[in-house]
Amino acid sequence: MNTPNAVRDVLTQSEAGVRAALVSNTAYTLDIQLTLGAETYRGDVTVTFDLSTVTDTFLDFRGKTIESLVVNGKHLEPSRTEFRLNLPGSALAKRNAVRIVYENEYDHGGDGFHQFKDPEDGQEYLYSNFEPYEAHRLFPCFDQPDIKATYALTATAPAEWEIIANSSEASRTILADGRIRHVFEPTKKFSTYLFALLVGPYHAVHEMHGEMNLGLYCRKSLAKHLDTDELFTISKQGLDFFGSFFDRPYEFGKYDQIFVPEFNSGAMENVGAVTHNEYMVFRDPPTDNQRRGRAETVLHEMAHMWFGDLVTMRWWDDLWLNESFATYMAYLCLDEATRFTTGWQDFNAGIKNWAYRQDQLVTTHPIAGEVADTDATFLNFDGITYGKGASVLKQLVAAIGMDGFREGMRNYFQTYSFGNATLAQFLRSLEAGSGADLKEWSRLWLETSSLNTIGSHWESDGDRITSFTLTQSAPDDYAYLRPHRLDIGLIRDDGGTLRVEVLPATIVGAELELDAARGLPRPALVVPNYNDHGYAKVALDSESVRFVRENIERIDDVLLRQLLWSSLWNMVRDQQLKSTDYLALVREKIALEPLTELIDSVLSNASAALGRYVPETQKDDQSRLFVQFAWDALREAKGEDAQIIWARALIGNAITPEDIAMTARLADGDVNVPGLTIDQDMRWAIAAKCVANGVSGAWTRVEKELQADPSDRGQRAKLRCDVSVPDPEVKAAAWTRINGEGYGSLYLTGAAMSGFNWRAQATVLEPYTEQFFEQLPTVFRDRDKEFASDYFRSLLPSHRVEQGVLDRSERLLASLGEDQPSLVRLLREANDDLSRAIRCR
Question: What is the DSSP string of 393-432?
Fold first, then answer.
């Protein structure tokens, strides 16, 4: 699972560059042997490749034992240096064949070749997850994106198991022991991190789209929740849209999507066999917002089939381009090809605000930058890589035009298909398609850090604008002014009707005189980033802020309301608006909002304000006000989506014993809201809060919920409740186990960690603040990256917004060296957040 004393397994960019210059024309022939109920599996792989110069090289391999190594027909004694299998130049030639027979253990941390046993029915499921540098957990390989290869896979498994891989099955043979030998068609060329192998008694549903076979897979115990119609519809719409937009059909034959358990990320774009986190199989009734989020993920991974799989970055410094492009294209497809036509509002509320937050941390970094090794890649799956990059692409498209962007992408795929490309080559394709010179744009937008603030200064004679200046500023530490292509919205109140005048503008320096505004009617509200084309913070003038606070519900434009609510939230984070004033505004206005997606977004920010920015002495009172407000709104809510959103807000923000007891009565049906169903996730949240806060009958409630939900979700929720008990002995035992052998898998250990820290248990938890900071260097040195990251985020004493905690964290940070980059980054970000919260309070 997450065993202590793990050796650091890393590949540097310089090592990868040397190897890529040597190795070419690579192919893998794999034979994987799987047995029901085993702790290990067997593999037999032959790697064929050319060398430009006959010299020493190595394969990456994290396997348990090597039984046989044959290099060009000669048996060699395996020579391993940590997770590398050395290939001596004396045994190599210009053309080589290396055969390795090995045995390996399954992984239980969500990466590599992961094994999961379903607690409901005892069935065993296996899946692979390899980005950025984990394929060598399954088989020996040149594990870097720019040594592409073909793969000829044979896999033997129990007869009742499905096997899903990158290509279609070519044949199957029943063996004497009852297992089936599956042979798959040789694949086209792609990178090792995109290889996929999924095995187990998966429930399967298939449909044809033209001549293409589409497959959906999930565990048998989840089959009743798999809504195949919507998933197939979105998939077909995406394949048609992308094939047309890029003027190139999908290249990899069949298209499978598999929902897998204990998955660390949201999804992974394996060629022809995309894996999705099981949270996208909705066990409880979803809101349409959740459905749209799932659709975006489906389309994001599908866009990777072109950008990432068909054409792949040379090294992980261009990871942002993979993810930003897929994010932008997914939202474009949502808007133009599906029923989810409010995707750009969701983009602003989620992806873009994630980017704004990340870009204002002390760890901000350029979109495009150096990535020294594969460990550094892990740090860059962040809001800048996904959100800022996509926002900048959106602005670039607004500047060069959709036609130019489309032609540029067609040029890119035509030129680099089945190969690797760099940022410079991507930009040259866009220049060829659009006729624009993008060198300066790239320098200012992709190679610099942080973000600008766009504002306005204007004067009037009472009725008409006499002067209008658009302004741009930058933080002192990142004093870059950038070109911004913007729409300026001038909104005026015309006898009770709000009218909008939109003026296009491109600001390059600190100021821009907007002559087109002169003589227009005096506005009540000025929005410097109307239509949300630009990537910048917006500074509303004081008159505009006053208008928004009084009239936001009157604005018809949904995207504009979203932008204005986002601006108000940023004002809270920037100490320009008190958190309590923001919460009062939410209580006054958000129940009037007709769009449930926007309600959901604003309530999420309100919850963050309650959790971090409200002074501790006011938190209970503010929580009570908010819970009462949510209760009133819940009873007035129309429609299932609105009821679910308000019920989640009510339960999530109940922190006093009285309010928690009220949510319990709601779950028990003692208080009733017609049409509302308290789903199982809500019930588990209530149960954990009851346990943590010592509400009467809490443990009886836990046992009742476990009886209703004996699934893996119920198992994890019960474990969370076990650790949530406010008892020193319980906490001590949990702490020892979390820091020791764990609970069987990373997901289970993560569930236990999620029950450790509770605000109401401050006295019991007080000793663990110091222990947490003492333990961190050891955890980040000896444990796998995913475990260390989960440990940090779950056990950080975030319930203590105190200067003493910040001081202790800063002392640890000051003591660390360059050998702990992941821990240094997480500490810097956490300290930045904590410092901001202290200032806001």
Answer: HHHHHHHH-HHHHHHHHHHHHHHHTTEEE-HHHHHHHHHH
Q: Are the C-beta atoms of residues 438 and 524 closer than 8 Å to each other?
A: no
Going by C-alpha positions, the residue among 247, 268, 243, 376 that lies closest to residue 322 is: 268
Is the distance from CB of 533 to CB of 487 less than 8 angstroms?
yes
Q: What are phi and psi of 802, to 5 degrees?
A: -140, 150
Q: In this structure, are residues 490 and 520 in contact, taking their beta carbons and an 8 Å threshold?
A: yes
Closest CA to 611 of 759, 726, 720, 757: 759
In the DSSP assignment, the letter for residue 102 is E
Amino acid at 691: V
Burial grade of 278 (CB within 10 A; 0-12, 13-18, 19 or more): buried
Residue pair 115/108 in contact by the 8 Å Cβ criterion: yes
Task: Write down the pTM of the prediction.
Answer: 0.95
**pLDDT exceeds 90 at position 349:** no
pLDDT at residue 812, as a whole number: 97
The percent of residues above 70 in pLDDT, for the chain, comes to 99
pLDDT of residue 379: 80
Residue labelled with tokens 């790697």:
47
The SS3 assignment for 273 reads: strand
pLDDT of residue 278: 97
Say if strands 169-174 and 203-209 run parallel, antiparallel, or are unpaired: unpaired
Which residues in 52-148 belong to E strands, given as ranges?
Answer: 57-60, 65-71, 74-75, 80-81, 84-87, 95-105, 112-117, 124-129
- The contacts of residue 655 (CB under 8 Å, 6+ apart) are 619, 620, 623, 759, 760
Nearest of 837, 838, 812, 839 to residue 826 by alpha carbon: 812
* Predicted confidence (pLDDT) per residue in 147-187, tens digit: 999 999 999 999 999 999 999 999 999 999 999 999 999 99
For residue 342, what pLDDT band results from cuts at 50, 70 and 90? confident
Of 134, 269, 301, 593, catalytic: 301
- Taking the C-alpha atoms of residue 720 and residue 706, their distance in angstroms, rounded to an integer, is 12
Active site residue 616: no
State the pLDDT at residue 4: 46
- Cβ(57)–Cβ(51) under 8 Å? yes
Tell me the pLDDT tens digit for each residue of 411-447. 999 999 999 999 999 999 999 999 999 999 999 999 9
**Structure confidence by residue, pLDDT tens digits, 743-759:** 999 999 999 999 999 99
Find all residues with CB under 8 Å of 373, minimum gap 6, and list them: 10, 11, 12, 13
- Give the three-state DSSP class for 278: helix
Residue with the two structure tokens 């911004």: 484
Q: Which one-letter amino acid corresponds to residue 121?
A: D
